[in-house]
Amino acid sequence: MRLFAPGGAPHFCVRGRTNLRILRENWHKVTEEEIRDLLDALWLRYEDASFIEDDPISVPHRFTGRHDREVAGFLAATIAWGNRRMIVRNGRRMMELMGDAPYEFVMEASEQALERLDRFVHRTFNGQDLTAFVLALRRMGRTWGGLGNFFETRYEATGDMRCVLADFRREFFACDHPARCEKHVAAIERGASCKRLNMFLRWMVRDSSRGVDFGLWQRIPASALYLPLDLHSGNVARALGLLDRRQNDWRAVEEVTTALRRFDAADPVKYDFALFGAGVNGAMTK
């Protein structure tokens, strides 16, 4: 069974949407070339500036400076779970509490200014967490000259983003902090999927030519990135036969990223737009 009919119309469709159940049952009949064609079509559809407004990446897109985008992006990615509208709204609220100057606030905010953060809450991430994160970012800024320099330097030293993810968490929590904060940065050494960190890395590393990601950290190649795996992208990846593992953990991230590298070794994570967009925006149905 072919994924596309001779005229270009996709099979497995119900009212113009790819039906995941039918596709899941028949994926073994689909050629790898057809899967690549589908993923490329979905990638081109969703990596578009129109994607930004309703996505957490809209928070760092409010700024033009590298350091502002790093701080805003990291904090927005940190709270990126739950309802996307709520994530975007609360991400913008964080920036407002920082006077819409996130890097300056991180590096220079007084004790009195930090108290403004007490009123912030996003699900289980509260003002105490946000204050601790600001202070950790301040220390990293003073030690490393910014988040980007840390990630780029550690990648150049190790050549492996898995090591860099583990190094980052250790460095971020190296100073005194409330123990409750640690749940908000995933631990790769414990098998976590690190979805939010991988998403943040996608934003910072991938080329900016399509106007969505920023391409700020050019000392890290896009080929080194891992998929920000979540419920939506995982469901679509399994339906396409790109992922067998049932849990959305680090082993699943490795499996699906390896599969995506067959389609584009230089930029496998571009297919995050395809998998997530198809799953969350209804291009594919259950």
Brief summary:
The protein is mainly α and 286 residues long.
Could you walk me through the main structural features you see in this protein, from its secondary elements to its overall organization?
The protein is built from 13 helices and 5 strands. It is mainly alpha-helical and 286 residues long. It has 2 domains: 13-51 and 225-285; 57-205. The strands form 2 sheets. A 3-stranded mixed sheet has the order 1-2-5. The protein has a two-stranded antiparallel sheet with strand order 3-4. It is globular and about 65 Å long. Pfam families: DUF2400.
Keywords:
286 residues, disordered N terminus, CHP02757, mainly alpha, three-stranded mixed sheet, TIGR02757 family protein, 13 helices
- What share of the residues lie within helices? 40-55%
> What is the element string, with H for helices and E for strands?
EEHHHHHHEEHHHHHHHE
Count of discrete domains: 2
The total count of helices amounts to 13
The order of strands across the largest sheet is: 1-2-5
Question: Radius of gyration over alpha carbons?
Answer: 19 Å
What's the mean pLDDT score? Answer: 91
Number of strands: 5
User: What global shape is seen?
Assistant: globular
Poorly predicted parts: 1-16
Biggest sheet details: 3 strands, mixed
Strand content: under 5%
Terminal Cα span: 20 Å
What structural class do you assign from the helix and strand content? mainly alpha
Pfam families: DUF2400
InterPro entries: CHP02757 (IPR014127)
Protein name: TIGR02757 family protein
